[in-house]
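TICKET #2291
ISSUE: user wants both folds in one file
ATTACHMENT 1:
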Amino acid sequence: MIGLNTAGIYIIQTVGSLYLLIVLLRFVLQLVRADFYNPLSQFAVRATQPLLKPIRRIVPSLFGLDMSSLLLAIVIQLIVMGLTLLLAYGTTGNPLQLLIWSIIGVTALFLKIFFYALIISVILSWVAPGSHNPGAELVNQICEPALAPFRRILPNLGGLDISPILAFMVLKLLDMLVINNLAAMTLMPSILRMLI
């Protein structure tokens, strides 16, 4: 029975995390005003539309942001964490605490999207500068709002762009100071870290 529970947890976390990533990526793409006609943007829209369409009727946009995508991401995270805890420990625990964990998990994933997009952007700048691949263009569109403030304050270093280094540092500090402190304030931070 333990083996089946472990397999169930693996499947739930893998499928749930993948869909959560797509939903949150849709929110990020709208946040950074990425090209809607990019094939990867179209994939994110088509993959999330069936669940987002009914939520959009209830949850309005706020400041031009699709809050229904954010709400769906929190609900998916809550379901994944609840099912994982249920299979691992036989209970989902306190619903309010589970909601807080879900918000922390979505926030951590939000930061990770920018972190990994920056890594991909740096690698692409070395191996395929100026690439017009849809994936490369989308990564650059995600990174540009995060890098623009640093580029404004840094002096021109003659073609050497060190703004990603500062962006990495800020993202890591946010993870250490915000996400880790929020996780530490919950009752079971080790379980939370396992789930996000």
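ATTACHMENT 2:
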Amino acid sequence: MQSNLDRTDRKILTLLQQDASLSAAEIAEKVGLSQSPCWRRIQRLKEEGYIRAQVALLDRKKLGLNTQIFAQVKLSAHGRQHLDEFTAAIRQIPEVLECYVMMGETDFNLRIVAADIEAYERFFFDTLSKLPGVQEIKSTIALSEIKNTTALPVGA
């Protein structure tokens, strides 16, 4: 699918990743197109699924979500029968920002946010540990953040 992108498409995607509030006219000026062809390219990129959504990225610390946790979850052998229930439940929990199925010793890797350690402890005992099939959870608290981006390397 990526082979359909030319240099101008990649520049447009890079600009939108930096600031999705840019107008088609502003983007057109930066990539050397007139407004209409630029707008059509943006629409095509949306239709083809390169642009999934345009959202506002919020500052979690300003919202009081000061603690970031990475939790490795292992399901019991019996719990694997509840895989669909587990994944459906995870999708409904707003504190879980990301969830990946893993290959190796653990089954899932979660990125979770909480106000503080005490809030995570409550979340751990009241929510996470009660999910279907959970056998073991290993939690790691992030001390500081070195890099956090949503921008993909599109090669503009």
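RESOLUTION: both attachments delivered.
EXTRA DETAIL ON ATTACHMENT 2: The chain has a mean pLDDT of 94.
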